[in-house]
Design brief:
By secondary structure, this protein is of the alpha/beta class. The protein is built from 19 helices and 15 strands. α16 (439-455) packs across α18 (481-492). The structure holds one RNA strand.
Amino acid sequence: MIEDFKFIKPGEVRVRIAPAPTGLLHIGTARTALFNYLFAKKNQGSFILRIEDTDIERIDPRAEKDIMENLKWLGIEWTEGPDIGGEYGPYRQSQRLEIYAKYLEKLLAEDKAYYCFCSEEELEAEKQYKMSIGEPPRYSGKCAQLSKEEVQKRLAEGQPSIIRFRVPAKKVEFEDLIRGKIEFDASLIGDIVIAKDLATPLYNFAVVIDDFEMKISHVIRGEDHISNTPKQILIQEALGFPRPIYAHLPLILGPDRTKLSKRHGAIAISEYKKRGYLPEALVNFMAFLGWNPGTEREIYSMASLIKEFSLERVQKGGAIFNIKRLDFLNGFYIRQKSIEKLTELCLPYLIEAGLIEPVFKEESKVSELPTAFFGTEIVQKYEIAETKEEISLEFLRKIISIYQERLKKLSEISELTDFFFKDKLDYDKELLRWKEMTDEEIRSSLDKLEKILSRIKTEDWTKENLENILMPEAEKMADRGMLLWPLRAALTGKEASAGPFEIAEILGKEKTIKRIKEARGLIK
RNA sequence: GGCCCCAUCGUAUAGUGGUUUAGUACACGUGGUUCUCAGCCACGUAACACCAGUUCAAAUCUGGUUGGGGCCA
């Protein structure tokens, strides 16, 4: 009941996420985790991470680590499980098998569950038939009335079997914090399978046991679980467990309005991380997928989300994942970073692109691509990959600072700034042409540039001075672009870049003039 | 097919019977800002799925239709 919820005392809230370690942490799970985390934090409760690893065939050994690493990276920290806490553990289902067996036996002993010997083919045929005549595809109850002796006999013979829960024919209703009252007619469900055998519980059964044993107060999960809820409630009732409060979150949808999945492209958090998204941006973005504070403020840190979050303000309809908005948010958070921090964050991308190289103190320690940065123990210095020229932190920071506001993703840094790290630029001579300039005009601009710049002393080689000297020259021409475009193109080899003066300053007098001469060489 | 959930600009959403010529952000378009790009600023395009009903008054309440989605070991 919503009323109950209002009287929750601090510390009484216990929520959880229970991912199956079958793949990398994806957006959907991360968003569910976020909402659970925010709710727990807001109510000074506990947030439990439980691993649902009973489906041995589908488990990916790397998944658990990936899930935990990326949750931490996002700043979503759990207070219990899989290796933290322990009072209510263990937190991996594979380590809880005796617990499930105990309850399974209880249900069997009370005749609230029974063994079923129907074959899969038989069941499938029945399902198809039922669907073809427009009936709900529920189990016929063929094995429901088997005598104890008959069951014992078949079990002894080793006949393949599963365990079914006797679903009572009654109406089930529950109050969802987000959707209000939801009703189901359980007589339509049919007796559900709750375990393959005593040692192999199935999802709907295991969750109920775990949530009870772990004293979960609120089950906050995706909307795709709504139809599982009545089944779980019935099992709870059969076992005499109290009912947790439910809140079903709207789904995250792909552009085609179906549940976001792998075929929609990247959905793993680690993939976003690799592409240069910031955890702040991802968190802010995910929070607004199905929730909003009711004000016009859009920028929220984790701390302010915790303060403002409430399940009452969660949307009912599914939300389409719009990456353009994530990009905008990411760009925003990049612009908020200090240059020092942003430089650290960009370093791995420059290294990966082969633009710069770290020089390690102890070669033996290096096994994979370092996400190391200046100040790290094992990195001695960085050098330009091509020329082995040592580069200073100052130099890198200057480069990063002129691209900070142009960056949407960290990964873009290498493509944007590669010309700073290359000895020779490779571009078509046409790039030097501004609008309808003739070769003669380009040549003349370049010559003028070289002449003027050569006269500037090295100690006066600053962005401001360069601008003060060159701008009046540009003004003299019919169009400022006639001087500035060839300059910038010669320095960067790119159609688009930061401004020419700041680039020239960073490049230094020598390289600037060298590049102008090289450009001059392209025009016969 | 059965059951369940959902429905405001392209997207995320504000809106809880009158204050609404339906607001904001992203995206998009136009203009401005030292050549370009980005950023920033300004302006603009753009939505209550439909049909009934309740009411003096409905995006907001009720019913239905349509559409979309989820689940069905």
